[in-house]
From TrEMBL:
Presumably involved in the processing and regular turnover of intracellular proteins. Catalyzes the removal of unsubstituted N-terminal amino acids from various peptides. Binds 2 manganese ions per subunit. NCBIfam families: PRK00913.1-2. One of its GO terms (cellular component) is cytoplasm. It catalyses: Release of an N-terminal amino acid, Xaa-|-Yaa-, in which Xaa is preferably Leu, but may be other amino acids including Pro although not Arg or Lys, and Yaa may be Pro. Amino acid amides and methyl esters are also readily hydrolyzed, but rates on arylamides are exceedingly low; Release of an N-terminal amino acid, preferentially leucine, but not glutamic or aspartic acids. Mn(2+) 1 binds at D273, D350, E352. InterPro entries: Leucine_aapep/pepB, Macro_dom-like, Peptidase_M17_C, Peptidase_M17_leu_NH2_pept, Peptidase_M17_N. The active site is at K280, R354. It is an enzyme of class 3 (hydrolase). This is Probable cytosol aminopeptidase. GO terms for biological process: proteolysis. It comes from Mycobacterium adipatum. Its cofactor is Mn(2+).
Amino acid sequence: MSSAPGYQAPTVTVSSSLPGRGVAEAVLVLPVVTGDTGPRTVGVDAVLDAEAVDAIESALSALNATGAEGQLHRLVIAGLPVASVLTVGLGDAGGEWPADTIRRAAGAAARALDKVGTVVTALSVLDLEAALEGLILGGYRFTDFRSDKTAPKDKGLTKIVALASDAKAATKAAAARAVDVASAVATARDFVNTPPSHLFPAEFAKQAKALGEAAGLEVEVLDDKALTRAGYGGIVGVGKGSSRLPRLVRLTYRGAKRGGKTVALVGKGVTFDTGGISIKPAANMHHMTSDMGGAAAVIATVVLAARQKLPIDVIATVPMAENMPSATAQRPGDVLTQYGGITVEVLNTDAEGRLILADAIVRACEDNPDYLIETSTLTGAQTVALGARTPGVMGSDEFRDRVARLSQAVGENGWAMPLPEELKDDLKSTVADLANVSSSRYAGMLVAGVYLREFVAEDVAWAHIDIAAPAYNTGGPWGYTPKGGTGVPTRTMFAVLEDIAANG
Ligand code: BES
Ligand code: MN
Ligand code: ZN
């Protein structure tokens, strides 16, 4: 296995002109749109002369290119300092290029450039940050578990020269922000892609601690004994079926100035979900390696907040457990006491996420946050309701809508969903305060949200983001999204943190 674990992001430089030398091996990535008379380059006026633009546009016409969104063409153009050109279509944008169109185009380009080490791009003239995020996220690979037999011989994309109208300090800061954001998403993907053999609660906690300490965060890790002593009945109940015992990790970033807000983040960290005694069918059970996708995104986000020095406090509370069937596992019908005292009848051991999250939410609320964002691969019902790419966002009406709007803006496309009052009746238990599953088959995603709401302190604005399918792409790669871990909803949560930092 390769020595440096995880994905290494490429180095990025910003330049206001096409470098005359040093890029002989590079590919120049250029945006094209569908013009009236055929494909037309955009954003390249400052970097290419009319002759080069002519040569590119007539080559594209000869290839019957249209400039449709995502269309790629590799060209060799004489007289340029680069080895080749890759054009990427943005479609009929009418002069407006939404950030995610640029991000997806950049991602598609990066995926097409297998084995190319250096990219010079003019997509960044249109939107620097979107172009960089798309290139880095599209160039992501995960090779930690390949031996020399199948590991790629090349290093992938290692260097990006982003063309921009200037290379002033503010432009460089924007580029650095994009690299930090993409690196955070890559961190979340790495965690999700690490197999359950190698990522179990104690190991996950250790890696989260190392990342947190490197970013200057306060770190606290509770092991199974500390969890039992402090009354974390949900985390202990779910975790006790495994020989690899649970943890609770707390990562604190303090950046608030006087009057600055405090945001709590909570993420589901089930390192593998067999279902427990209520065991899942064998088909696709291996996808449950992604059941810690919420935890991965939360850890990456608090580290990113610190890197970007946001003027708010961010406190991540991350419960980690492996849900296994065994002689020590909890049984359907067991009653446990969640942290804070609410009792729960565990009617289905496969509804384990809400049990560990309820404990974590109560603990997170003890810090008196202004806002709480919780995210989890919580229900198969998310996929039924919204499909593979659309997270469901629930919670306090106003904050939920704000989170969904910002999620749309960054291209992660979370969608607001309601938490109807009457669903609470479906969680009645004959022996305890609550049952962990509904007596009805309806609205499984919303019922899980209703369960979690019982544990959120009254004065905390909260949002729950169900990422069951969006955290893990089981289909083919698209745009800047590879197969496997996607890193969703890291960019949504960071956008919310930035918005809170700016607007309270
Ligand atoms: N981790 C699963 C949810 C899930 C399903 C995530 C598919 C990703 C893809 C969760 O723990 C679970 O098993 N939920 C149950 C809840 C049910 C028992 C109420 C489900 O959705 O079936
Ligand atoms: Mn489950
Ligand atoms: Zn689960």
